Amino acid sequence: MTKLLAGRQKGPVTWTNECALAFEQIRKCLSRGPVRKLPDLSKPFAVRTDASGTGIGGVLLQVHDGMQHPTAFASRKLLPRETRYSTIERECLAIVWTLTKFQRYLWVQEFHLETDHRPLQYITSSSYKNARIMRWSLSLQEFLFTIKSLPGDDNIFADILSRSGSDQ
C-alpha cells in the first residue's frame, strides 16, 4: 500500500493480491482494537506522550475489562521556536502540555506517565542544567505520578498524534 500512496503516479494503478491483503488488514485494524471509552474517575489513569520534529501528542488511557483503552487524545503542531528545541526539551514539552490538557482527570489521583524517552524518567529526581527543563519540572510537581519507560514501538497512539501535524 505504501508504494501505491507514495507520490503522484501517472497512469492506472496496478492492484495486486498483496495490495488487497494489505487493504483488508488496514480495514480490520480500523474496525476493531482498543475502542475509546469514557473516563472513569474511580480507576487509575495512564498517560503516554511523544514528540516529533513537527508536533507533540498525548493520550489518556484506562484499563477497562482487562484491556487498556484510550479515553482522550490531544496533539498540536510545534511553534516555529519550539522546532528548534532539543529532543529532550520537545519530549518534556509534550509531557507538560499533555498533563495540562488532561489536568481535570489527573489532579485528584496518582497515575502512570509512560514515555519512550528514557532520560525523562528522572525528571522529578534530577537537577537539570537546562533552565527550561527545570522550570517545567517544577510545574509537574502538582501532579502525583510515576514515570515508566516505554519501548517506542508500544507508544503508537502518542507517536501518531505527534506526527499528525494538526491542532486537536
Total helical elements: 6
Largest sheet, in brief, is:
5 strands, mixed
Number of strands: 5
Across the major sheet, the strand order is 3-2-1-4-5
Shape: globular
Architecture overview:
The structure is a single chain. With 168 residues, the protein is of the alpha/beta class. The chain has a single domain, classed as 2-Layer Sandwich (Nucleotidyltransferase, domain 5), CATH 3.30.420.10. The protein contains six helices and five strands. It has a five-stranded mixed beta sheet. A hairpin with a 2-residue loop joins strand 2 and strand 3. Helix 3 runs parallel beside helix 5. It is globular. The mean pLDDT is 82.
Summarize the model shown:
By secondary structure, this protein is α/β, with parallel strands linked by helices. The chain contains six helices and five strands. Keywords: Endonuclease, Hydrolase, Nuclease, Nucleotidyltransferase, RNA-directed DNA polymerase, Transferase.
Key features?
globular, nucleotidyltransferase, endonuclease, hydrolase activity, RT_RNaseH, 168 residues, transferase, Nucleotidyltransferase, domain 5
Task: Map the helices and strands.
Blueprint: H1 2-5, H2 17-31, E1 45-51, E2 55-64, E3 67-77, H3 87-101, H4 103-106, E4 111-115, H5 131-139, E5 145-149, H6 156-163
Parallel strand pairs: 1-4, 4-5
Antiparallel strand pairs: 1-2, 2-3
Helix pairs in contact: 3-5
